[in-house]
Amino acid sequence: MSQDSIPDLSLTVPLAAEAIRQANTLVFACHVNPDGDALGSMIGLALALTPLQKKITLLSADGVPEMYKFLPGAELVQRGSDEAEFDLAIVLDSGDLSRVGASVLPVVERARKTIDIDHHVTANSFGDIRVLNSKAASTSEIVYALVLAMGLPIDKAIATCLFTGVITDTGSFRFQNVTPNTFHVAASLLEHGAPPAYISENVFENRSFAATKMLGATLSTLTSTANGRVIWAHASLEDFVALGATDEDTEGIVNYVRGVRDAEVGVFFREMPGGSVRISLRSRDTVNVAEIAAQFGGGGHKMAAGCSVARPLAEAEKLVIDAILAVLPAVS
């Protein structure tokens, strides 16, 4: 979807607000392997709607990773629901409806109406109402605007969730997606009680022993193209077993891979039980990694994306790296 075809937020935000007010039962969902923005925006919006006394179900196919269990309201998130039908489904930060996961997708599809809230704008955007803004650094920024538009108060718990989303998707304001509005939103959330040091410690400085060992094991597999423009690393099933680690223990490792000097694209592969490989991609702006991920059924945005490939680890590495090299701009 091109920027020109994105529905005007001044039109879609009021439509979303009215749909929320009219619904009695709502289900919220985010993407698989959720990060701070997916969970922060979802939980933050749910907490903000508390005064409206709605029945809200929060779904994450992969649950809440340990590092994000500090979020107020994290205990409300479920992996699935047996509810027959909801008045309204709100999908946040997913890019593509399928990215909510196989266990959650049928629940969302049973809802009478669907709202897509996202800063990932792709050809697979969906929903009866699409609240999309590719210029927002995080989905939490969009949720903040929606909450204000609805005239709902923001307390410390809501501010904590949304601020977590902002700093997660901006790498603590280090990424190129940061705009003046990002800082305006962050400042407002601080004024409403978000504790930046506490949030940052939990998100960036709270790695478990197994996760720290996994970081070392993964970085020992670093591989580079001859010119050093593409760097990748992997974690095998054997690594997970030997270190007693889980997939959530790999959170953030891809940023170390991309952080290698002169690397334009960083990729992290992790082998999952059942024969699939989860892949995280990061770019410094020369390659649109969302387009790479889309080739394999994934999604994301220009500089951060993810996908899964049902191939052996070595084959998955070759497929994805070849796809990147095919679009890597020539050095001038």
UniProtKB/TrEMBL annotation:
Domain named DDH: which ranges? Answer: 29-166
**Record's protein name:** Phosphoesterase RecJ-like protein
The leader peptide range reads: none
| Residues covered by the DHHA1 domain | 243-323
PANTHER family, per database record: BIFUNCTIONAL OLIGORIBONUCLEASE AND PAP PHOSPHATASE NRNA (PTHR47618)
A Pfam family: DHH
The highest taxon in the source lineage is: Bacteria
